[in-house]
Amino acid sequence: MRTKIWIVGTFAALGLIVGLWAQDGPNSQGSQTVARPRKAPSADNGNTNNNAPADSDADQPKIPSKLSPKATKDNTTDADATFKAETNVVNVDVQVLDNNGNPIPNIPRDRFRILEDNVPQTLTQFNVGEAPMTVALVVEFSARFQAFYSSGWAETLTASYGFVQSLKPDDYLAVIAYDLHSTILSDFTNDRTKTMDAMSRLRIPGFSESNMFDALADTADRMSKIEGRKAIVLIASGIDTFSKLTYDKARKALQESGVPIYSIEMLQIERILAEARGGMGPSQELTFLQADNELKTFGKETGGQAYFPRFIQELPGVFQSISQSLRNQYSLGYSPNNQARDGKFRKITVQLVNPGTNEPLRMVNEKGKPMKYTILAKAGYTAPRAVE
User: Fold this and answer.
1) In this structure, is the dihedral angle defined by the CA atoms of residues 312, 316, 317 and 323, taken in order, positive or negative?
2) Sequence-ordered list of residues with C-beta below 8 angstroms from that of 368, at least 6 positions apart, any chain
3) Which domains does the chain have, with CATH numbers?
4) Which helix H or strand E contains 92, and what residues bound it?
5) What is the pTM of this model?
6) What is the CA radius of gyration of the chain?
7) Rounded distance, CA 71 to CA 65, Å?
8) 128: which residues sit within 8 A by CB, 6+ positions away?
9) How much of the chain, in percent, has pLDDT values that exceed 90?
């Protein structure tokens, strides 16, 4: 009986061993799912595999990297291809005004002629129509002429609030006040709530200095890269007292920026009354006359204008004139014949001509009488410099 039990146990153990051997197989690597690279037969081994492909990856040389240090060490024949594209298009916003300062519309494209350094250019762009504005309102707010509750203070605030209210909802506005320093009260936005919050800070002036040149040049530089119709509206006495920039340097900076400046000079009635009473000496009178000429020059050379209202009642007409001038412009563009990237100043002249005779264009009013007109455009631009 014990012998039978031993024989049965022996056969059971052998059956278990055979089952495990059949399940694992003789080669445990046969169940792997990731193929391993096939090794190429060694050269000194006489065993050859006829089933191996002729162009096995292991037999091929490595592809050299063109950018590796070894591949480019002595490479002096081939160079990487470089592409360079330069487009130099000059944009000029032009206003054509009649004797009353009103824009003259519907002037055809072929009537315009642009000269750069007295050389005629070919127009490549011509657009007409209203467009939203981007305006920086620069306000002189010093204790010299805008002392708290003075007439100058009241005029400045009235003009500033009046201009803000004349804008359309899609116009962008920044408010900047200056005395000894320039302060951005609000950056460019079409949110009038933010603008009115900024205007509410114009209450009590600080310093008595008025650094107009610095404020204008800094604002124009910030706006030089802005696309579309843009302008600086300056509300000031026109007198600069302590700027780092001189008048000539400020004038050059404004010319290069290409941002038109519309100036509204305050204190006109105060000057008239002071002169009538003999309260203004020759030195003060000369200072104000110099300020008048500087504002006129800034407007003329940047394509803007200067206004000298005597009464507050004139301000709505001034605001309307600025709005019409900016919204009803002729936007011209051309590619200069002179493509030299020398950083020099190029003078621009805009003319209206008769294309048939090449003579100055003659305009008539509703009654058929000859009408004088004024062309406003920036005086020029600074050519870009070559990038080395």
Assistant:
1) positive
2) none
3) 90-127+331-382 (no CATH), 130-327 (3.40.50.410)
4) strand 90-97
5) 0.68
6) 40
7) 7
8) 105, 329, 330, 331
9) 43
